[in-house]
Design brief:
The protein is 67% helix and 1% strand. The protein contains 17 helices and two strands. It has a two-stranded antiparallel ribbon.
Length: 377
Amino acid sequence: MAASLLSSSSSFSFPPHRLYLRSSTSAALASPSSLALPRRRFYIRAADTEANKAVKSSAPDKSPAKDGSSFNQLLGIKGAAQETNKWKIRLQLTKPVTWPPLVWGVVCGAAASGNFHWNIEDVAKSIVCMIMSGPCLTGYTQTLNDWYDREIDAINEPYRPIPSGVISESEVITQIWVLLLGGLALGGLLDVWAGHKFPIVFYLAVGGSLLSYIYSAPPLKLKQNGWIGNFALGASYISLPWWAGQALFGTLTPDIVVLTLLYSIAGLGIAIVNDFKSIEGDRALGLQSLPVAFGVETAKWICVSAIDITQLSVAGYLLGAGKPFYALALLGLILPQVYFQFQYFLKDPAKYDVKYQASAQPFLVLGLLVTALATSH
């Protein structure tokens, strides 16, 4: 939801980003009507300064179709082919490659509730919650982020839909609103379906959506600060979808809130992975990502430390809670992540970021499920 319900790199998840989010966390609660801001205030145009003109001038009129991949285009990742089909372009903006962590977050939350049953109704509820967290609210988050990052993308990834001009301003704004309102509507539907007296899933969706907005949009633009922005993104991808799944099938307890926020520190580390490929554009536009602020060498160690120490802390918590087998299972899943960090990431984080994430993150998300199962017993 983050950073819609939950969350860019990564984790589940759920959500960058919130539950969603980026779909997201820290956010004021609001009704759908309160989100209907006048269009002119929903986005802020960059001033036509000489710096901005220089940035815009670096974006080509068309994407490099010759070298691009159609598969990458559908997933919304770097190296995408130029596409003229508007529906494929819209899908690219939602970055489907970022949906799985959010979907997995819902799975973990449902498992942690201890009340999920393999029947048609519970499976249907979980699928709707996954659609809310992934395609709707994470899609909203990613489209919104691309809109506000259009000047940065003109430097780092000029072939993306917005800086290359293959989709219009009005079409992007329409997509943002449709995905946002669709996700909030599904959140309300799930509360009614679950018989909640308090619409907790809806409010989690609202909170994740607001966090996503302040992450990307001025004047707050949390992503300008490497620590705050990456933690918000991590919470959106891990905490928010987990909370939504657990609230849907059971009760969201304070200890789970604390545990998942702790796990979001690992999400912060995952979010940093994506910052190394954007150093040039972030530096040009004054965004203080950790690689820009601390340099590549220091930032890469901050990244892996956040991921590893967080998981080791959770393993220690499970051991102290009298669940040694779950703690050992989690420890076993940490070891291959450390191996791939030395094998790929620490050698060259910008060159091997995709290989590292593809190799190591499956073990991290399995560790999330182990933790969820441990807390359900």
